[in-house]
Design brief:
The complex is a heterodimer of chains A (259) and B (437). The relative contact order of chain A is 0.16. Chain A is an alpha+beta fold. In chain A, a hairpin with a 2-residue loop joins β11 and β12. Chain A is globular and about 50 Å long. Helix content of chain A is 21%, strand content 45%. Chain B has 437 residues and is an alpha+beta fold. Chain B has a 6-stranded mixed beta barrel with strand order 2-3-8-5-7-6, surrounded by 4 helices. The longest helix of chain B is centred in the N-terminal third of the chain and has 41 residues. Chain B is elongated. The chains are: A alpha+beta (259), B alpha+beta (437). Chains A and B meet through β6 of A and β2, β3, β6 and β7 of B.
């Protein structure tokens, strides 16, 4: 009698272990896809020149920004145009951000309370920049389906924050093409209501590889009556895996470029 | 005899009641003083409450919003930099022409990063006109350290520790006390402001703390910083535009009329396009609600108070009737009808109540009037009051309503209460009553 019970328990245990393994396999898969997608966008290092257009129902403004990234955590942005804002810079290292303004020649570290404010008035928040890389580890990713676009498979991934992760969003849905090209990323609040969506509108050859050359971040809750609110990022040039000196991502370089 | 005829006829019952009232002066004075005390408390409390509402509204209005504001449409809801009054000049001129208007000023607001040597906080940077602001708000009186903003921006050399060659203009800034504490700055220290201009450009400037203000409203003291409107307009690329035209009216009662007048005039002005007019009630919706809640609580409290007084009066009347059972028995035995006896007792309690109320109104109004003249110092006494912007002195407001509403309530309840012992007499049997000790 006892033997039978033992056997039964063993069988159950085995089944459980198996299904658990299958599940982790699934999530690892989705996580790998997201990881690859982020790596594909950033490579080891990059240097780019982009035009950022902030569109509001009654006005529009375009800035030219030079950007450098290294690994998944370090970035430096510097405004080149319009002339009025030339030299304003943002440095991101890990989860911390600093802002430099040439007119007053000061570097300000962004306090945590300001991280959800918009960056340079755009639809990107400071958090979008500061936490762009933490997506991989702060969320649990799950493949919820596949689509086909122009003959290529597109993975639809739902990412839910881990219980203790310091995140702003309640949920993300990512669409990633089979070649790990991120096609869109939708941001949801804690109630799983959509807040904004990042769409790669154009994908072309730039910097020696296929890359999204036009990004569009749009608010989903924008009042349709008053018109669209969105921010466009157009890549003019981008170079990958170039040699960037270590002092590139330091506060002194943010303040005194090129020294 | 002839003299008596010319005097107005007083019914013998009333005369008898009057004599009865003074037959036991101690008992009478006890009853009268209970009634009197209730009236005094009610008059004072009611006046105090109305006074504190007026103080509440006025001090909130004076610290922040003003009685009436003109804003661009949608600015109040969205608070976006771009919703401005592009050309405030003619509008101000028109408002100044309205008779009941006491003062007018302009303001502009921008949420910005405020940074001291080591700390950074987000705060609302407010551009004010130092000269005209004094007439509209109490800001100048709230300065606890340092001075109010100078009328003309002063050029100060801050290039000392800067790498550069420039002699930069550093404008003065007034900082809320809690914000100053958070930033760890004192008068004379330097602050960096970093925000976004009206055209979307980066707005940045350096300000030197010239004064620290404390309104007692934590939210205001923690989240605001004030610079001159000229500095604001140049730093935030505002040109001549402002966000708010703030209007103060002579008295609260005239706010409605002034608002209507402004709306009417704006409608025919080219500069008035897309502008809206709001009064303090719309600007601070929480304030009216707070007042209503407080008033409701007050009314409940008064009823409880009156109820307690009613029971003590009932007790006094009842005791009086028990004490005088023998006397009533004799009266009935010699032919007084029970109805007339009831009437007599009602007259007695009526007279006592009248004396009590009369004295109560006199003393109550006197006390209230003294406090109305000198004010009650409430400074730092209560954080709740401070939240509503009541700081310093509260002046009770004596009016017809506050002077008579309470005593009227006491009158109605006392008479109602006095009926019960009076009615008991009807059931008295003369013989039993006479043997009652």
């Amino acid at each position: 009698m006892n033997r039978w019970v033992m056997l039964f328990v063993c069988c159950c245990g085995l089944c459980f272990v198996r299904s658990a393994a299958a599940e982790t396999g699934m999530t690892t898969d989705a996580r790998t896809i997201v990881n690859h997608a982020v790596e594909y966008l950033r490579e080891d290092t990059s240097e780019s020149l982009v035009h950022m257009t902030i569109h509001r129902p009654d006005w529009e403004r375009t800035m030219t920004i030079q950007a450098w990234t290294k690994g998944k955590t370090d970035s430096l942005f510097r405004i080149e145009a319009p002339a009025k804002d030339k030299g304003n810079g943002t440095l991101k290292k890990g989860r911390e951000m600093w802002i430099y303004n040439p007119k007053i020649n000061r570097v300000i570290k962004l306090p945590p309370s300001m991280m959800s404010q918009s960056w340079q008035g755009s639809d990107f928040s400071n958090n979008d920049l500061a936490k762009s890389d933490t997506v991989i580890d702060d969320y649990t990713h799950e493949l919820i389906g596949t689509e086909t676009l122009d003959g290529k498979t597109v993975y639809v991934i739902r990412s839910v924050p881990k219980p203790d992760a310091p995140v702003v969003w309640g949920m993300l849905t990512l669409k990633i093409r089979e070649d790990f090209m991120l096609l869109s990323e939708a941001f949801y609040d804690e109630d799983r209501e959509p807040v904004k969506i990042l769409t790669m509108e154009k994908i072309g050859m730039i910097g020696g590889k296929l890359y999204p050359t036009r990004w569009r971040m749009a608010k989903t809750d924008a009042d349709p009556a008053s018109g669209d609110e969105y921010t466009l990022i157009n890549y003019e040039t981008i170079q990958f895996n170039i040699d960037l000196p270590d002092h590139m991502f330091t506060i002194s370089n943010l303040k005194n470029p090129g020294r | 005899m002839t003299q008596k005829i010319t005097r107005p006829e007083i019914s013998p019952d009333v005369q008898m009641a009057w004599r009865n009232v003074w037959r036991n002066p101690r008992r009478t004075w006890l009853t009268v003083s209970a009634i009197c005390f209730a009236c005094i408390v009610l008059i004072f409390m009611l006046s105090f409450q109305f006074g504190s509402y007026e103080t509440m509204i006025n001090s909130s209005v004076k610290i922040n919003t003003g009685h009436v504001q003109v804003q661009a449409e949608g600015y109040f809801e969205k608070r976006t930099m771009r919703r401005v009054i592009p050309d405030p000049g003619p509008v101000i001129k028109m408002i100044k022409g309205i008779e009941a208007v006491e003062a007018v000023t302009v303001r502009a607001n921008a949420f910005s990063l405020v940074s001291s040597a080591g700390r950074t906080y987000g705060a609302m940077v407010i551009g004010i006109d130092p000269e005209r602001e004094k007439d509209v708000s109490t800001l100048a009186d709230l300065i606890r350290k340092g001075n109010f903003l100078p009328s003309e921006p002063v050029s100060v050399d801050v290039s000392g520790e800067l790498s550069g060659e420039s002699l930069e203009e550093s404008s003065g800034a007034l900082v809320g006390a809690l914000l100053a504490r958070n930033l760890n700055v004192a008068v004379g220290d330097e602050l960096t402001l970093l925000g976004q201009g009206r055209d979307g450009s980066v707005a940045a400037t350096i300000g030197r703390v010239c004064g620290i203000y404390e309104s007692g409203i934590d939210e205001f003291d923690r989240n605001t910083l004030q610079i001159t409107i000229q500095t604001f307009q140049s730093v935030y690329s505002m040109d001549d535009a402002v966000h708010e035209i703030v209007v103060n009216v002579r008295s609260l009662h005239e706010v409605g009329a002034v608002k209507k007048e402004i709306i009417r005039s704006l409608a025919v002005m080219p500069a008035g396009k897309d502008l809206v007019v709001m009064d303090w009630d719309e600007l601070m919706p929480g304030l009216t609600q707070a007042i209503l809640i407080d008033l409701t609580m007050g009314i409940i409290f008064w009823f409880l108070l009156v109820l307690v007084v009613a029971f003590s009066i009932l007790n006094t009347f009842l005791m009086a009737v028990f004490e005088r059972t023998r006397e009533f028995g004799v009266m009935m035995a010699i032919g007084m009808s029970p109805n007339r006896l009831v009437k007599l007792l009602v007259y007695e309690s009526g007279l006592m109540t009248l004396i009590g109320i009369g004295l109560g109104i006199l003393i109550g109004c006197g006390i209230t009037w003294i406090f109305q003249a000198y004010g009650i110092d409430m400074a730092r006494s209560s954080e709740i009051l401070a939240q509503y912007g009541i700081s310093g002195r509260i002046y009770p407001q004596l009016s017809l309503i506050t002077a008579f509403a309470g005593p009227l309530l006491v009158w109605v309840i006392t008479i109602a209460v006095a009926l019960y012992p009076a009615m008991k007499i009807r059931r008295l049997k003369p013989v039993e009553a006479m043997t009652h000790v």
